Amino acid sequence: MTGLLAFVLGTAFAGWSVEGPSYTNRSDANDYAKSAKDAGYKGRVIRRFRDGSGWEFVVRVEDLANADEAQQAAESLAAAAQVAAVVLDEEGTVVKRVEASEIPADKGTPAKGEPEGDAPTAAPWYEAVSEAHGAGLAVLSEAERVLVVYTRKLPDGRIARHTYVRRGTDLYLRIERVEGEVVESTTLALGDAAWLTTGGSTKPQDLQRSRETIEKFSPTGIMPIILDVEGAVGTHEMLGSLAKTGKGDVGGVAVDLYAPKGAPTPEVAVGAKDHLVRRITLDGGKRVHEFSKYREVEGVQLPERILSIHDGASEPDQIVVEKIELDGEIPDAWLAAPK
To answer: What is the pLDDT of residue 78?
Structure first.
């Protein structure tokens, strides 16, 4: 770790932690995170820059109470993945390296929070849900380039295709007509300037307002709770107090229902087997959002189909995600300032 220039978005050290090896691609890090999960630990994939070699991905298990717990975690991860793990103190300094060859592959070390002889305690509803979905907000934030393409059918039958792009801090949004009366437009926010192109005319725009507009059509705009379950719980206190109220079915998927005591909403319907959010009901039933056809993107579970019903409307607002791509190629023309 000496000489390492690390750039980690949204990362701070809290307590002791353990890290696995660094990888040049996220898929290998995701595989290591799955090994950590099998060993009973929740690992987070972090993207950072190493001076001289470029971007790398590493899995970190955080919030370990002390050196002994960190040592136990490092031994468990080294045994599970059969590669070395390192122990970091509260300041993020490496204090020990645990080689896989030092640990028997079949070593049965109890995972954090599961000491031998103790009866398991009931975890909050959102812990399993957050783990099932993955750290979506962190993964998107750490990506240098994000491309999302989706179609949206409004209750009145109009259909538009949206192309959202972020490259660094630059933003691009293209809205195209598919069916019905749709005003086609392109909004750009580059550096300290912004433009709106519509009807063949391009005009400068307020930068902050343009950024806010574009972000409404971003992944965080169309699926905010899905991307950061625990963050949503931290922001909306009532979500943290939900208790299981029964079982149900959403789109043919068996779900467990969670709601606050003495109130019908907010209600969250979670897949009974996969723990993925299938429906969120708000405002006494006036707003309903359903999520289906999940697929994995860089270790994160994201829905391809989102249905939203507002104020008891007879027809839903429908979003179908066609593409989500991280750190892929973005045409330079899309993010070029108008001449």
So the answer is: 86
